[in-house]
Structure formats: C-alpha cells, structure tokens
Amino acid sequence: MKSLKDVDKKVAELxxxxxxxxxxxxxxxxxENYTSRAVREALGSVFTNKYSEGYPFKRYxxxxxxxxxxxxxxxxxxxxxxxxxxxxxQGLSGSPANMAAYLAxxxxxxxxxxxxxxxxxxLTHGSPVSFSGKLFNxxxxxxxxxxxxxxxxxxxxxxxxxxxxxxxxxxxxYPRIVPWKKFREVADSVGAYLLADIAHIAGLIVAGVHTSPxxxxxxxxxxxxxxLRGPRGxxxxxxxxxxxxxxDKTVFPGLQGGPHDNxxxxxxxxLKEASTAxxxxxxxxxxxNAKVLASFLSKNNLRLVSGGxxxxxxxxxxxxxxxxxxxxxxxxxxxGIVVNKNTVPRETRKPFVTSGIRLGTPAVTTRGMxxxxxxxxxxxxxxxxxxxxxxxxxxxIAGQIKLLTTRFPVP
Length: 411
Ligand SMILES: Cc1ncc(COP(=O)(O)O)c(C=O)c1O
Known about the structure:
Elements: H1 4-7, H2 9-24, E1 26-27, H3 37-43, E2 54-55, E3 58-59, H4 65-82, E4 86-88, H5 94-105, E5 111-115, H6 131-135, E6 137-141, H7 152-162, E7 166-169, H8 180-190, E8 193-197, H9 202-207, E9 219-223, E10 234-238, H10 241-255, H11 261-274, H12 277-299, E11 303-304, E12 313-317, H13 325-335, E13 337-338, E14 340-342, E15 356-360, H14 362-366, H15 371-386, H16 391-406
Helix pairs in contact: 3-11, 4-11, 5-10, 7-8, 12-15, 15-16
The protein binds pyridoxal-5'-phosphate (PLP).
The site of pyridoxal-5'-phosphate has 14 residues, from helix 5.
C-alpha cells in the first residue's frame, strides 16, 4: 500500500502547506473550527468505501452490518445530546439539510419566510440566488435599523400579510441570542411551521450558553462542522413523528442517494466529544472570548453591529465612508489573521465588497486561547486596520502574530 506522497506528491504537498497555514494563522472565521484527530480518523476510514442507501436495518445494499451500527450510534447520540425524539444524520451539509427540511414541510411554490442575507440570514433562508428563493416564494424579514436586533413587529406584519408555510429562524451573521419563543408565537398566529437553523450555534446550545429551540420549533436543522466541531455534515431533528417520517423520505430517496458513511462515523465521534464536560467548558470559553474580543474592538473605536455579542461571533461595520470589508479582510490576511468580509445592516456596497467583517472565536478557543489573547488580537486587528497602507508596519505585526500562534498548537 503506497502512501499519499508516493501516489500523488502534488496533493500531499498541498495538504502539508494547508496544515502549515492553519497552524500559523489566527482563524477568526466563525463557521470554521479544528476537528480532533479522532474525528479525522473516522472521516478517513474505510466507511468511505461503502454504499448504504436506506436507513439502519432497511438498506438497499448488503454488507451494512457495521454501517447500521455506526449510523444508529450517531442517531442515538444526536437524540441524547439535543434532547430530541428523532434525528436524521444523512444530510450531506447544511444547505441540503435545509432543502430537505423545507420539502418535508412544504410544496414547491409555497411561501417561506426567513431573515434577509444582509441582515444575517443564510443563502438558504430565501435568497433569490439559492434554491430556497427559486423553488419557494421567499419573503424576507430584517433587523431594526436602530437596534440592529430582530424586528418582531416586522416579522409579525409580514407573516400576517404573506401567511408563510414555514418561518425560518437561526442565522449566519447575527451576534445576539435568538428568541425562539417569540418566533413560535408569530408562527402560531398564522399557522406556520417554525424551522430553527442552529448551524452556527449548535455547540453553544450543547454547552448551555444559548437556549435550545428543541421543543419550541417544529424542525431543527444544524451543520456538524461549526461550533459543534465535527466533520462537514448535518443533522435534522424533530419531536413530531409524522414530520420525522417525511424528513427521512425527503432526504432519501427524495434528494440523496447513498449517505457518506465515513462522515456518519465522524459525526458519531464528534457527538461523543460534545457530550463531555470539557466540551461544555469549551462552549463557555468561546462566548467569554467573543465578549472580550468585542470589547477590545470597541475600545479601539470600531463599531460593532448591535453594540457587541452574546454568542461566538461579531460584526464590525466600517460604514459607508470607511474602508471596505474586502480591503480589511485582505490587510488582515496579509498579517495572518483570517476573517471574512460580510454585509452589514443598511449595506450600501456589493456582497463581494461589503462594509463589514465577521469575526468569531470557535477556532481560536479550540487552540486554547483565552481572554488575554483576545485582548491582544483585538488590539492587533485595530492596528492593522489603522496601518493597512503601511507595508513595513504590517510586516512587523505579521511577525508578532506568528509568534503568538506558535504558542497554541492546533489539534
Ligand atoms: C445558518 C446556516 N445554515 C446553513 C448553512 C449551510 O451550511 P453548508 O455550508 O454546510 O451548506 C450555513 C453555512 O454557513 C449557515 O450559517
């Protein structure tokens, strides 16, 4: 058996380079994380060789004895961890999982209602460029322009006017706690299903630092690779037996063929890791770190959307006249701080340019960074933004960042 570097030197080298990049950079992308070695071992296992269309003990192929066991394990662990009656772990990622959930609850052409992209919703929450805006009649709610918090007057008004089949809550770029019960009230007032997409905050919910929508929303979807720190995958959950059957049928055979059994195995491992006391501590530290980072950005006169954060992420708004998100993302990246440019409420620029950046602490917290490092990183970010045209200064800061990251190994 030849190793990767014997078979394909080029790809082996690219992996080594990516390993080095991940080690040397400070990763502040809120949707990314470092998986454990155990998760990656399961992901790289022989389960990738198997076909297993169907569900545990009801397959269309033979040879699924161990796949059945591993998928059952993932399902049982998901149910226990989130305190829910049903879980489907076959969704290939967050977007296909949302598609499956919508098609289980509604027909093509029905109205769905979600947060607009510029206000912090995900593409799959009704954006016209995604399946969600093409297959469904999508209505978008926004945030209040003053408080930059969800505008429930608008949510209720739009729901009354458009009578959506599904209301989607849970976001991509919203730094505050999501009030599930308020969404439930609106959904009930118009007879809509409530879908909570907890892709970003699943790990925080498990750690008890964000409330859970289980028991409030009809269906809960999540990715497994953000704060939950697993492989790229998804879980769809519900307590409603009828919906559970529809969800299973919509995932397979409705939308997918064979599940990725190696991913299922890695999800099972990640869920075991997420059920430990140390994961709870990790989730608590993510939020502590985010609050300190936010406070040091604010102290450096950077404006945070909604004034701060209660979660793992924050948005900096440079305003119409300030630098663009693209420009700042590039300056930070040159120094070894990785963030993503992001639209902000009242955005005036194009999505590829933007007036803001989005930052989050799940990855740096996995590396063991704490409040002291957040203070340093907050000050360094402000320094880079202030000196973004001074190559010499940026080089000096890049040196400081390299020094900092060598002290915090990645798993
Ligand atoms: C809230 C939310 N839902 C769904 C997704 C989609 O996940 P994926 O990129 O795995 O398709 C994302 C991804 O960022 C997200 O933030």
